[in-house]
Amino acid sequence: MSAHDPVELAAARPDFAAIAAWIPKGASVLDLGCGDGSLLRFLRDTREVRGYGVEISDANIVTCIKNGVNVIQDDLDTGLSGFETLSFDYVILSQTLQAIRHTEALVQEILRVGRAGIVSFPNFGYWQNRLRILQGKMPVSSELPYQWYDTPNVHLCTLNDFEDFCGKQKIQILDRRVMKGETEVKVLPNLLGSSAVYRFQRSS
């Protein structure tokens, strides 16, 4: 796969296209846990966004710089104190929510720094994950590729869990897209969807 081909990137990561659909052209974006910068490159190429990534891995920092992605090295679990309030249109946490230790604090920081937030995460309520648990094993899949002993994931959740969390945190969900691969799931999403993307803001 070409690192710069938007079509191939969207096929490899279906949440990229869902995220891009919610972001207006020219918006400012902060991508938390940006990895190698693929999402920011995708948004730059398809939506002409301006923005930065935040990443902790030395290897990913080097890759971001090589690919022309603006990146800051930092640990998300220490917060976003280096960013001013409402300094970005969107703050994105893509496939990283489940690896964050201080989830409540970071989500509140997302809504301080950004006018809206977007998160994507694997749905632990997906039927194949439930079946694996019934068989006495932890799930391993394309969305959850790690074994129990080497996983970075510390807070796996279902769609219902995340929506309950938003209610308790006084967060308004603006949009939701649930997927199995590239296919959008609209019927029994908490059972049949393997991943989800949410757009949200602070309740008024």
Kindly describe this structure.
It is globular and about 45 Å long. α1 packs across α2. It contains 8 helices and 8 strands, in the order ααβαβαββαβααββαβ. The longest helix has 11 residues. The chain starts with 5 loop residues before the first helix and ends with a strand. It has one domain: 3-Layer(aba) Sandwich (Rossmann fold). With 204 residues, it is of the alpha/beta class. It has an 8-stranded mixed β-sheet with strand order 3-2-1-4-5-8-6-7, sandwiched between helices. α4 links the parallel β2 and β3.
CATH architecture: 3-Layer(aba) Sandwich
Low-confidence stretches: none
Helix fraction by DSSP (H/I, runs of at least 4): 25-40%
Q: Describe the largest sheet.
A: 8 strands, mixed
Distance between the termini: 43 Å
Can you tell me the CATH superfamily? Vaccinia Virus protein VP39
Number of helices: 8
User: What's the helix-strand series?
Assistant: HHEHEHEEHEHHEEHE
Q: What is the CATH domain class?
A: Alpha Beta
Overall strand count: 8
Structural class: alpha/beta
Strand-residue proportion: 15-25%
Strand order of the largest sheet: 3-2-1-4-5-8-6-7
Structural descriptors:
204 residues; Rossmann fold
Question: How is this structure best summarized?
Answer:
The chain is of the alpha/beta class and 204 residues long. The chain is built from eight helices and eight strands, in the order ααβαβαββαβααββαβ.
